[in-house]
Design goal:
Length: 197
Amino acid sequence: MTDIDSALDDIARLREQLAASSRFQGLAPGVVALTGLFALALGGWQLRATEEDLFVWILLAAICALMIGTEAVVRSRTHHRAMADRMLTTTLNRFLPVATAGAIIGIVILLRAPEHGRLLPGLWQVLMGVGIFSVLSNLPRQMLFAALFYFATGTASLILSANNALSTAWLMMVPFGVGQLFVAGLLLHASREAPHG
């Protein structure tokens, strides 16, 4: 290995370490808030229609992930410039396994054991908390409160899921609607507190 190859390897390792420890600024508060409003709207529609189809929530999660992901790519290219691809890759590598687990759990339970579908809202909220914790080192420090929020609502939803009188629309709408609006507020506060941090 030549000195140039060694130096290039060292630079690549430094860039990886920098990406792993830098604050990711690709999350837009407005788009995250919009996902919360979508959750409130879908939950409200399901309550009016007395519809409890959790597959629709998986579809909404996919749409919201696409919206947030697209905005994250655009914003990271603006905020992180040369480090944008590394920042996106680092953040995705940490969060994607949790999101994939949530989708797999949801689809398998709904297709093979639908009688346990009432547990999904709580499981998804706990996984959202795990996902936020997994990328916490790249997010504003206030996002710790969002992770704790989803752990708390997930625990409450799992407990309340035994109550058949409470619709799964409530167990999805309130935690994810309010939760995403809370996340958006935390991101907005963080961007005002340290716009270049």
